[in-house]
Amino acid sequence: MINWKLWAAGAATLASLAFFAPANAGEIASPVNVRSGPGTNWPVVATIPAGADVQVLTCASGWHWRWCKVQAGDVKGYVHQAALGQSGGHVDVAEVVTTDATALHKSPRIFSHVITTIPAGAQVNVLHCASGLGSGWCHVAYGGALGFVRGGLIERNTFGLPFL
């Protein structure tokens, strides 16, 4: 007998993976969630890709984090300050880079096949991190290949924003 709830959950998972698997792995650009308010309890209203210029409208300290109200085109909302970086005289959504040389694994297991080694400071495009950026395993694209890296070995390259 088929467990329809389990089948539906599996089908939804496969559909979401198909949605996130691009025709060209290089087209993905580690987006940041834009929320309707300053905190993770507020709903996500949009995403902004890494490298996109944003206008910082205001920044304020929250309960645990510093949140900034930003605008990028028609998108307006709040992002965590740690997601913002500087590029020349512009503020943008910071790219995600490796903090050290790291293995790109075929699956999210330490002993799985290594596809390639990503050098320190290399930009990767994050599709999803199981436990959030900076922990667990993250599904990434690098050099046209898709694989998994330890989340603790990648971070947003913020360059510091002293004016916020």
Polypeptide structure, described:
With 164 residues, the chain is mostly beta strands. It is built from 1 helix and 14 strands; from the N terminus they run αββββββββββββββ. A 5-stranded antiparallel β-sheet has the order 5-4-3-7-6, with no helix packed on it. Strands 13-12-11-8-14 form a 5-stranded antiparallel β-sheet, with no helix packed on it. The relative contact order is 0.17.
Oligomer: single chain
The geometry reads as elongated
Structural class: mainly beta
Model regions low in confidence, pLDDT < 50 over at least 5 residues: 1-28
Give the domain tally: 2
Average pLDDT, all residues:
77
Number of strands: 14
Total count of helical runs of at least 4 residues: 1
- N-to-C series of helices and strands: HEEEEEEEEEEEEEE
CA(first)-CA(last) distance: 58 Å
Helix content: 10-25%
Strand arrangement within the widest β-sheet reads 5-4-3-7-6
Radius of gyration: 17 Å
What is the beta-strand fraction? 35-45%
Q: Sheet bearing the most strands, described?
A: 5 strands, antiparallel
What's a quick, concise take on this entry?
The chain folds into two domains: 32-93; 96-156, SH3 type barrels (Roll).
Write a concise keyword list for the protein shown above.
single chain; 164 residues; mainly beta; SH3 type barrels; 5-stranded antiparallel sheet; 1 helix; 14 strands; 10% helix; disordered N terminus
